[in-house]
Amino acid sequence: MNNHGAPVLSVVIPMYNEADVLPLLVNRLRPVLDGIGVSYEVVAVDDGSTDATAAQLFGLRRAWPQLRIIRLRRNSGHQAALTAGLHRAFGQYVVSLDADLQDPPEKIPEMLTLARTQNLDIVYGVRSDRSSDTVGKRSTANLYYRIMGRLSGVTVRQNAGDFRLLSRATVDALKQLPERQPVYRLLVPWLGFPSGEVTYVRERRAAGRTKYPLRKMIALAADSVTNFSAAPLRLATWLGLLAFFFCLCMIIYVIVSYALDATVRGWASLLATVLFLGGAQLLCLGLVGEYLGRLYSAVQGRPAYFIAYDSAEETSRQPAPAVP
Ligand code: UDP
Ligand code: MG
Known about the structure:
With 324 residues, this protein is α/β, with parallel strands linked by helices. 49% of the residues lie in helices and 16% in strands. The chain has an eight-stranded mixed beta sheet with strand order 7-5-6-4-1-2-3-8, sandwiched between helices. It starts with 8 loop residues before the first strand and ends in a 14-residue tail after the last strand.
């Protein structure tokens, strides 16, 4: 601990039903952290797991005092769990890590050294090789980075996921932001702090199953787009303009047909027009709705997660929850 009582390093790990992988994670993570020679805390954010994750964490903590357990009241999603961990971490540097060992803990010392020697606020873990991911995952990820780079105007580091090191200044800057659904892989570069990177090979999930089904990936992509860009709304404007010019042409056609006394035919063109306009209007309405929904939930101001328990506040009113 430094003179303020805060550890040098916090390692934030969101976990949801990761009981299978937890022992493997600890076996690899602990020697690395013990070997760095700085004070540290491991912030395990249990994102409302329903398996043995919570019980295992409490068991592990008995032999590993640096392990801190934060439990969310219910499953709130990866980014919300990450937010809970980042907001509550004490360290001067905070590393975020997936629980499934896809991000190698062995890279943490390298990240810390790089940040300290070169005075960097952010060190991204960049995947040099994603061959262990499925083809579907890789191509959707590529598409995501391409589109987001384009739309947000932020230089997004390709293949930098949520394995990264942040300085206290960066974490504090993130905490200042009022965002309800932060998408860190865009927000962090947007802050503009000096950054570096270490490369690593993305390994296979060590055990258990992915907690990111397609549905959650689509939700993340939708959050990313709406958080950083009004381009879809502009699409509605362009579609509207296009439809307007199309209608102008149609009106001229109608007048000419009327003048030529040939106004009976035209079932196909009429139906095509009605269908096209109906479709375009619904699409635009949906796009506006996406933003409106987010605006609504931002106005409601409900927190993205609730803390059920934080072992750093053990003296507080709440006892350790009964574990399943
Ligand atoms: N995770 C979480 N809450 C969720 C879903 C996932 O805390 O609702 C955690 C999960 O335990 C893991 C990390 O987020 O530590 C990344 O999830 P996963 O490895 O399943 O995603 P993938 O690598 O397949 O994209
Ligand atoms: Mg994973």
